[in-house]
Design brief:
single chain, 481 residues, alpha+beta, Arc Repressor Mutant, subunit A, three-stranded antiparallel beta sheet, elongated
Length: 481
């Protein structure tokens, strides 16, 4: 692969489909909750029955405008809906209501770590249903498929990027950044496993230095960050091998199989004219006033990049800030801590260390834990005042995450407060020095790193409760005699 990457360059563009967090569908009144029994979230509109008419859900428009503003897009005064003609068994009408040449969001960009990724457009559309394929032999000795139309009519915002990405990692970072933005502004839950956010990946390759794009293949419905990277890397190699053998890459739609780790041909890739777009006759064009845009803009929450900057100004490193921002629930929790005037760096160390590890192991969010804001603030205050040591605080925070027990009560009950009395620590220091004559001789002979050995022994003897500053002072004083 490295040889191919020395010779060929990837060109990647992504079409991300984000399911909008509305209570009802884009053109009908039934709900769109995930996990309902098959075909229970349907209506005559969703089923495309004769004589029924779609009615646009205004909240979908509000969310599209909000997203466009967050993506630095232009919101035109006029947009319209179109019919996209194609037949699938899970598309009851035989066409999809979408937007084509006059979308609700035009242009824009998303900042990733090293560049801006251009946005071509973002447009509203309805989702199709879902085919459930049965593997067992059916009545006539073959497999069969069932149709679940619960998802049909679910509101989607399709965000189309420019072909600005040049590696699988750039593509991954772009989708992660986009997911964060959508989650923070509250328009999509970003749940890839449930299909509420998925990506179609367009990838072509070209010899390094060539300006013209190669022939692209589209990989459909990649639904995890890991799969996105794997699918792109596989497709790069597949196309490179075709060119190396003197062949031509054909324009087609391919499916990614996560188990086998390969893409396979699904169908020839359609162009826009194949869909026979024309204006949707059952929906009036949409007129969007500047007052409407201003009203939505006023509700814009703090965006992830803005939160990153604020956290760094509060004393966090870029890495620590990114770890917190990339987990929205953790960031909202951290904001509540900052309102209590805690030390940002100390709180961050716990959140990105012991707390994050516990949450990952238990597969829960911080909201599901028993660590309340007030109890965590109390723990940090005990640490700040020197009543408990950092190591004790680390062990206590995990216990509180599990039990929710009051931090101060735990410290008192377990006798965990720091020993800061010289008369209590000095005899321990003297005993350790007396019990380890060889280490003392080596230390006095120039092996300064052995000082840590004596600190460790003293901490072990005091169960981590010795005041570190006082302990270091007494050890140095006794060892230098």
């Amino acid at each position: 692969m490295s040889n191919y990457k020395d010779k060929y360059e990837m060109v990647i563009g992504l079409e991300v489909h984000a399911q909008l967090k509305t209570n009802t569908k884009i053109f009908a009144r039934e709900g769109c909750e995930f996990g309902k029994n098959p075909n229970t979230e349907t209506s005559t509109v969703t089923l495309g029955m004769p004589g029924v008419l779609p009615v646009l859900n205004k909240e979908c428009v509000n969310m599209a405008i909000l997203t466009g503003l967050a993506l630095n897009s232009t919101i035109p005064k006029h947009c319209k809906f179109d019919r996209k003609q194609y037949f699938y068994p899970d598309l009851p009408k035989g066409y999809q209501i979408s937007q084509y040449d006059e979308p609700i969001c035009q242009g824009g960009w998303v900042q990733i770590s090293n560049k801006k990724i251009g946005i071509t457009r973002a447009h509203l559309e309805e989702d199709a249903g879902k085919l459930v394929h049965a593997g067992a032999a059916g009545l006539y000795g073959s497999s069969y498929s069932l149709v679940d139309l619960n998802r049909a009519g679910t509101p989607l915002l399709e965000i189309v990027s420019e072909p600005d990405m040049r590696s699988s990692e750039e593509a991954r970072e772009y989708v992660e950044t986009l997911r964060n933005i959508l989650r923070y502004i509250g328009v999509c839950d970003g749940n890839l496993e449930e299909g509420s956010m998925r990506a179609d990946c367009n990838i072509s390759i070209r010899p390094i230095g060539q300006k013209e794009f190669g022939t692209r293949a589209e990989i459909k419905n990649v639904n995890s960050f890991r799969s996105l990277v794997r699918a792109i890397e596989y497709e790069f190699i597949r196309q490179a091998e075709i060119l190396e053998e003197g062949g031509k890459v054909i324009q087609e739609t391919r499916l990614w199989d996560d188990n086998s780790g390969v893409t396979s041909s699904m169908r020839g890739k359609e162009d826009a004219h194949d869909y026979r777009y024309f204006p949707e006759p059952d929906l009036m064009p949409l007129e969007i006033s500047q007052e409407w845009i201003n009203e939505i803009k006023a509700k814009m929450p703090e965006l992830p990049n803005e939160k990153m900057e604020r956290y760094q100004k509060a004393g966090l490193s870029e890495y620590d800030a990114s770890v917190i921002v990339n987990q929205m629930e953790l960031a909202l929790y951290f904001d509540k801590l900052l309102q209590k005037n805690v030390d940002a760096k100390t709180a961050s160390n716990f959140l990105t260390g012991e707390i994050a590890a516990y949450l990952k192991e238990e597969k829960i969010s911080i909201e599901d834990s028993k660590l309340t804001i007030d109890n965590f603030v109390q723990l940090l205050d005990l640490l700040k005042k020197g009543i408990i040591s950092n190591n004790i605080a680390k062990s206590l925070v995990v216990e509180i995450l599990k039990t929710g027990e009051d931090a101060k009560i735990l410290v008192d009950k377990k006798g965990l407060s720091v020993i800061s009395d010289e008369s209590s620590i000095l005899p321990i220091v003297q005993k350790i020095i007396a019990d380890n004559p060889e280490q003392v001789a080596a230390y006095k002979g120039g092996k300064d790193k052995l000082f840590g050995f004596f600190v460790g022994q003293a901490m072990k003897e005091t169960k981590g409760r010795a005041n570190p500053q006082l302990l270091n002072k007494l050890l140095k004083q006794e060892l230098d005699k």
